[in-house]
Amino acid sequence: MNKIETIKLYNIKETSLLVVLDSIELEKTMGYHDLFLLWTPNFKKMGIPIYLIFPDSKEKLHKSNQIYNMYIHYVSDPILIDRLNCTKEKLVFGKKYNVIFPRMYVVHDHYLTFEQKRINNEMIKKLYIKVIEIKFEKFIKKIKNSVDIPNILW
User: 25, 41, 56, 114: which has the highest count of C-beta atoms within 10 A?
Assistant: First the structure.
């Protein structure tokens, strides 16, 4: 089992939110997707991009990206989903199925720094606060350590 701290993501440069979801055609996945569409303006205001990782083909995701075309990046990467240990093989009536567990991660300086296993409105809110704390950590420390003169902060 991989620890999330050891997985380096070279393509993601800034502090961002990475979300692993199952196929975009599933009703359950669309429920999670709709939650992120609601939260997108808040993440956009803070300059925090959202990457939704799906096992689907790029063509299926391209269609969704054209429909919504927001601050969300749709990525097809089944290999990353496996690296993050979000898949499990299940046996149902003699047939084997791969099940993908939804997960949320905070990416900072190319590394995964925080993992959330449940996706609901409350957990997205907590993760949003966590991402802001990580992204603006230096700025927050500067404010805490500064003298009480407003012009020094900016």
Answer: 56
